[in-house]
Design brief:
Four copies of one chain form a homotetramer. The first copy, chain A, contains 14 helices and eleven strands. At the B-D interface, helix 10 of B face helix 11 of D.
Chain lengths: ~350, ~350, ~350, ~350
């Protein structure tokens, strides 16, 4: 066990209410592969949150959710338009290409946010058999750079997608953080703005593990269980994942957990912004803080801070001489003391 | 929550010692993706059980373990020889073909056990560019039909494989059951008999979820972490799976849990064998009992027994007029009372 | 250049009328990728032969035709039922699995012919997410063993397929030989008996190279050009393949070429049948003769006959002590003298 | 048959010497799948041109050559760095991703030419299991934009590749045009500058169809025939493709054909450059001319010029108000009269 780390929101453990739900689910026998009451309740909870058309399928992890969702939405010659910074593009070891077989058409996006204009610039070759057919727009909400799409921004992307006979997918590994940040219900970021498919994240928001693919159109949901199985994402003792998702979505844990992470990131961002020699790279709108720091300060922090590692240098297409970008992520369990300790350490290293 | 079921060994929950390990792992922060001390200890435990050449990689589920292992062992034009009854062949929704890209060359095997003769019959077309190249022999230990390979039987398959420049893979979703049945150490079924790669099962033996791919040759292990990630089997909060595997393998829980399941299957098999009108289809050597029963008796049992479902009719290439094959699996938590209740019910329905 | 060979019907060259068509097509410029008048005429010829619903797509080779057709017909979790002797299964180096991603469910078929009963035995697991979903029945006409399906036999397979919401595909690398053998029009083997997709063979029937995928349902044809391109089967100077297919199908060359090959095989089969020590393994119904001969006679023939090789030993699941199965294929250009020379040589070696 | 077109170098037909070679190859029988003397001579010719380490494999088309070559060079988690304008990236309908399973890491390249600096900018994530591993650098020679790499420029890319344990692949669909342009032997663009694998183009340089994959390292060549077959690129009557390649490479046809195309492009480029209102977009170094013309002039030309189509508008990341980019390709059979007619028509439409 390590000290508090800002290295990732997956360095934290399971929220006590999640643990309690796992313990409660561990009584007696239950049918496998999702034919259990916990899973039934999770499916119902997704309908409550997102509307009756939402078909939820519990899966193991975020890459699995994304790849399975893309397999459901695309034909073999379809392509996915996404930001160059998308998890799909940089953090899934080519699984979208090798496992889902799709080509990604990426756009460099300021603050990690795709716009209709940027998306449209990648819609080319429609009807040309030599070209992949742009079919899916995929965005991360909140983004990989800690920013958040307004509902109207998502709606504009959905409108573009549907005008062009395309579909909108959200990588929602941190969807709860976005909703908490905007003060909206989950449905306002999904159903109400025309999203067609969602990878819903639980792991980064207090679960031990567990995500869900949520399909908003019956034609994609009809046979998705075959794709989930074939994509190696079908849990046999599914109740133990479903119980966690039930704990998250049955009350307001999703909001409390994400809200705390966001508030701590806000506190950290404000503290860093106040320091001479540190610069925020992106607005702090969810649970991530991206900041430029001089390399000696970063090296000092990495040596002296606890956490294994305390945080990561982060790749950037920008270059700032003598400085590097660092990423700091807050979790459901990050405390004000954790933030203040880090902020103090940064100040010391800068000073 | 349902009553005790013999429908599958994944209808049971988590063993108390496994649960305790998860709770203990839930303290503070830990690095993601396996860079945590629980995972390091699990890797060490596999080396203790299987020898220093064993490289273990924690994954989510059995299909994931199998598919990732086959991806590591085979070239794009390689084929896998396996029994027709293999989980790979009948229970993975075509993932070996679609995701790993391999062709399966199946053999009808009595009692689900491949022999060198049967395997050799599928080694054809070697060096012929029109044919897939047989490269991997894959067997399940214990088998899908509840039987067990003797160490010498595995050694003979390994010898054939290596003589023909092939590799031997074990789908060990129930490896512990086989070891418990034979009264041997795990290494006697793997390392000592020349196995090249292993899918090690935890879920069916008392874990909430969790398996491992164990690669015995450094050339396969070297870059396997890329394949695990790309095969969508890399857990971010891996400590929570590793802690469970540590609970299983750190002491003798693997043996106690599997041993109980085996003993209960033996008790159930003996009781069924003694009944007029019921016939065992295969020797009861691990935790599964396969029996032919008259259809009216089966229908009666399905109506009256608790469990959801209490058991499954099982496909068979044999046909017995008016009867069906049923599969009954025992778990780490099956009790003598559970067995006796079922045996009594069967007797009633037959009577 | 070698002497006449019975090793394969692809050892022969191009028919003079085919060559003439290539020469005639080589005038001036023409648009690429099928937007040329030769290709338009071939598409029209397929509609004339097979009906207005036939959408033909010119491709390079037979494996390409088969794999592209299967990609068009199947969903990612679909399986193909075919004879164990199918070209798909034994002669395409795993391309159906690796490139099309489908699982083949094979049946041992006497004389290489699938029956509804045999096909039905492989329809299992329907609706079960753990199992591939049987979706396509694929047969070769004429078969890999030189036999021919009657139209009624194909109709029965189509009826089964459609009853079970499946599709019927014909690997017609030698469809013309079957039609010539039965004295029927091509449509009687395709359109009139409910075939859904066809790989139409030209190469083995007098072309230099060239095949076509013919899709009988608009939902498969609509976007097939994307799949053809992605399956690497889109010729840029397509006119030179289309001109050959036009030569084949525009008049009765398809029938004359295949008819000659069939007659020569009939003559060869009759001669062999009359010999002591030689046994026909299958009825001679198209252009192939399969015969059991004593190994010394085979070795003698391989030494003394011209052709490189003159013929091939052929794998068989049967074993005849001291004998091997050989395959002898006749071509559009096989002459009576060629046949009689071979028959004489066999007699000599047996004598 | 259409009039002369500048729409593509695949609108031309077969060179008379190529046709003659096909006719000469059409005598008697020959073994299939490349076991014929024409193919043996082609393999030898590639060794003569490129050195004894060159292993050549005849294939059908350029996409097939590229995809099969990438399959030979890359591990499942490897990525290919290439210009955004690469044929691989924009003209192969996602086959590199779906069929070869590789991710393309593209760079915007002035004049379509990758530099070591641009390539290096895409080498990221090495050793990180979350990222694809950059493994292959692929360039087109001549480029998709009609420019040519100097041997030293290729050598610099090879040096970078080898320093980083990567490999250099050339898409040489127009390699002969580059060699003719530079006045060098083929080996000076391949062997002498460290290229590891080559897709060699014949179709655009006077063949009816036919390309070759040439592998310069024995470890890639050893089993490539399995990959060629599985990638659906194994011709049965291969002699008819090999005879064409023999005609091309056995004497100086490769140089004469490409040289004519280049000269005509040079003449056309010079004529266009001299016109008011037309601007060359890229240096004319091979057989392609890329020019910006006012849209009304383009529309006029498309209406009045023969050819079906006479040329194509071409996508560009640049935008010039009121103008479009057009691509004009010359062939082995383009004459000065063809060029002068087009140049005159352009002048008329501009005037």
């Amino acid at each position: 066990m390590s000290a508090h780390s800002f290295g990732s929101d997956n360095h934290s453990g399971g929220h006590p209410e999640v643990i309690e739900a796992v313990l409660a689910a561990n009584e007696g026998h239950a049918p496998g592969y999702g034919a259990d009451p916990w899973t039934a309740r999770v499916e119902e909870l997704f309908r409550e949150h997102l509307g009756p058309q939402a078909s939820a399928f519990v899966v193991f992890n975020g890459s699995g959710a994304n790849v399975a969702a893309l397999r459901a939405l695309g034909r073999p010659y379809d392509a996915v338009i996404c930001p160059a910074s998308a998890h799909l593009n940089v953090d899934e070891c080519g699984a979208p290409e090798r496992i889902a077989g799709v080509k990604l058409l990426t756009a460099e996006c300021p603050d990690g946010k795709l716009t209709p204009e940027l998306a449209e610039s990648r819609i080319t070759g429609v009807g040309d058999e030599h070209a992949v057919q742009p079919r899916i727009i995929s965005i991360s909400q909140s983004t990989e750079l800690g920013t958040v799409y307004e509902p109207s921004e998502i709606a504009a992307l959905a409108e573009l997608a549907h005008e062009r006979e395309m579909l909108l997918h959200i990588d929602g590994a941190r969807l709860c953080n976005a909703a908490a940040s905007l003060g909206v219900e989950l449905r306002e970021l999904v159903t109400d703005v025309g999203v067609d498919a969602l990878s819903f994240g639980g792991t980064k928001n207090g679960l031990l593990l567990g995500e869900a693919v949520v399909l908003m159109r019956p034609e994609h949901a009809a046979d998705f269980r075959f794709l989930r199985k074939q994509t190696l994402q079908l849990a046999s003792k599914m109740r133990f994942i479903s119980a966690q998702l039930e704990a998250l979505l049955g009350g307001d844990l999703w909001l409390r957990a994400a809200g705390n992470a966001n508030r701590m990131a806000g506190r950290l961002g404000a503290a860093i912004e106040a320091l001479d020699g540190a610069t925020l790279a992106h607005p702090v709108q969810a649970n991530g803080v991206f900041a430029w720091l001089p390399d000696p300060a970063i090296d000092g922090l990495l040596e002296t801070m606890p956490g294994d590692p305390p945080f990561h240098r982060w790749p950037s297409s920008e270059r700032v001489e003598g400085s590097s970008l660092i990423r700091l992520l807050c979790s459901w369990d990050t405390s004000e003391a954790d933030v203040d300790e880090l902020a103090g350490a940064i100040a010391d290293c800068l000073g």
